[in-house]
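Q: Protein A?
A:
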Amino acid sequence: MGQRKRTALEKNLSPQGASRAPAEISRVPNKKHNICMVSDFFFPNMGGVESHIYQLSQCLIENGHKVVIVTHAYGKRKGVRYLTNGLKVYYLPLQVMYNQTTATTCFHSLPLMRCVFVRERITIVHAHSSFSAMAHDALFHAKTMGLNTVFTDHSLFGFADLSSVLTNKLLTISLCDTNHIVCVSYTSKENTVLRAALNPEIVSVIPNAVDTTDFTPDPSQRQDDRITVVVVSRLVYRKGIDLLGGIIPELCLKHPDLHFLIGGEGPKRLVLEEVREKYQLHDRVRLLGALEHKNVRGVLVQGHIFLNTSLTEAFCMAIVEGASCGLQVVSTRVGGIPEVLPEDLITLCEPTVRSLCAGLEMVIARQRAGSVPSPASIHASVRNLYTWTNVTERTEKVYDRVSGEEVLPLDRRLRRLRAHCGPVAGSIFAFVAVLDFLFLLLLQWLVPDRIMDVALDATGPHAVWRQQPTSTDISKKQPTKTDISE
């Protein structure tokens, strides 16, 4: 099943026809865009969304686009910061409510975001993550300002519990007039289309990517007298840490040479500490705590098997990183995971302790018999499966498509909200859209766009940072005392 979906992915989303719905995308050659990435989740916070935004932005900059990122302040990290290659990040002073997500009233962020969009001459607003309130705010304000919008959904949601019902309704409102939506797997696309009642033709599948040059195998780091199972994950419920707590004592009892190396932090760490204490496994279960991304490879190359116990996952980058380091991968068969790796590189199990134990024991037996592929051959197999260059090409096709599309005027937007989101929620948010538009008119009257300073471009075709000084400029500069002293 996973191989068939992956084949369809490569066929439909190849560089010749990537990132599009069935309708053709007319791409304007060498067209450059001013893009604003918006999400609550960005560095110094660590995670898959943060890494995706950063890597995609860097590749877009390399291709000549202008990219800025908007997120909320993290502690003392406020204001404007510049990252590698002139990537500008706005850390806005917005109040964090829960789990690094900002509180939203849909209005308090408009003055700040309008300032960024106008000063940076943004043409496309690209929001990330259904969990991010700032992303939904940015989509709402961008449509009010007449900007084209793109949204990337990185997660899967249910349909039954109260939180999912509320989140799905918010997503329906945010995406009903968004120009294009990107999902990271076909399972994620089906989930998003159903949750937000979307037309599948405006939803594209663009998988995540991994820089495999950062994840190379090193068998010399393994200990031959033991078999090491590596787990690198946030220690939270949806990552299946309760399953891991059931697996460890059962397999350690059967296999005296089995060790577990666990990297990550979260509220479920207590479960693993209790298991380790109860069964006296301190010498066989190591809890490394939170890991910086640069240290993940150093942990992976120590293992023989990579274990993923997630209960829900749209696209699991961790299993690609593990395979890239030459590990045998054992994972739960949930969400988009069956689409990620070829069947000969992954052992899929049901999300139960019994099934995962059976899968691990099968791989352990193959490991002892020496019938597993070498780490180098596994790395070679996954090296070119998911590259940021390919992801960037597909994303550029989406940008080229939406840049030629119409942004709905206010009257049609109000009709779309009421027709698409229901008579109650649609009417409420149509009223909010009118208030947002009136607030924008007030801000434009108080501080007209024409008197707002235009920011210097650090990236893009007119990037000041990349302009080389001419010989005339160099000759005009006179050495100062500071220059001489340095």
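Q: Protein B?
A:
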Amino acid sequence: LRAQNKKLYLATFAAVLGPLSFGFVLGYSSPVIPELRKINDPKLRLDSSQASWFGSVVTLGAAAGGILGGYLVDKAGRKLSLMLCSIPYVFGYIVIISAQNVWMLYFGRMLTGLASGITSLVVPMYISEVSHPKVRGMLGSCVQLMVVTGILGAYVAGITLKWRWLAVLCAFPSCIMLLFMSFMPETPRFLLNRHKRSEAIASLRFLRGPHADHEWECRQIEASVQEEGLNLSEFKNPSIYRPLLTGVALMFFQQVTGINAVMFYAETIFENADFKDSRMASVVVGSIQVCFTAVAALIIDKTGRKVLLYISGIIMALSTALFGLYFKMVLPNRNNSSNPDVWFTLNSASPGTESSTSWLAVVSLGLFVAGFALGWGPVPWLVISEIFPLKARGVSSGACVLTNWVMAFLVTKEFNDFIGFLTSYGTFWLFSAFCCLNVTFTAFYIPETKGQTLEQIEAYYRRS
């Protein structure tokens, strides 16, 4: 009696087309902003503050998507929520393509952000609920793998395509997802939660092939599906609030490593290092991310979740400390708060030091991105799809996704002000301190979920 994984991989593939679309959304602004800042039509031309909003309004849409998704996923189910979120994707891109002014651009970005928020909540949940413990880590890590693939895809396509055509291309994956997902089953856990036993068995038969013991797996899940209905008083219960706090903290820590700020300013860092073509440099960074996220996906079910978080946290702490050192060496010894603009600060480095130390910036950037991709990129999304009890899964995941995107917004938007306030090396040393804190947090508060069924993880929180 063993499970066949072919159909399970197919269902995962259909679901991860969602994260692919959301990678395209995140990567879209990088090639498009320089183009829209120089565009001839004055109604569409972006100044620097508008460009910054064009980039970051997505995160606000995604925060709203987290709230909406948390509601949808428990009401409409995992599969239907996923199919529904392709509507704001496509509609958002239509608005961008037909944009007449800057506000239409913002509105389109907001809609694609909303869809991204729903996706980032539903897909990890769908995958963890259809998988079995042997492959759940690998399949769950494919979410982040597809996000970074999408970002890289948008960078590469952005080299040749004009911004409207790039938007047309970005709308594609979500249409294919809608098509594929319509043939995939709903998750057995959601069906049993709704007391649809025969449908749950059918779903398991599809996912595990004819030779697995569907009855046994069904009973395992049923044993932990208790009476439904979640009211606020239940959040006093440690088996519900402990995983919730762990999840929210994971999301908070993922963003305060500074990943989004670093990615956002990567091009500037490369320009300073005298890389002739900063667009190609972005592609290099994107490729590093894809490679190391793939490595993480392949080894996570062997090594476990915590080991990767340790290694990743240590690499990031070292590389952000190196970054800080670079700025300390390069920037003249004056107080930079006279001009808090990052672009100015980074470009006013004393001329002679460039070639000798700029490789330090590039190396620490590469290390940082590799470290993030190895652990703190994919693992938090995987862990939050595993640790919540079934009845609180929608609400808790919603809270986590909301935290993640609000933090992403704050870190990216306030990075500028931080640099004016703490100087650039101070900011990177702050990121470094947070990375050290991440490692400590992992040691004390994150349970190892490798090889356990979702029901065993739920039982662990009930016991402790």
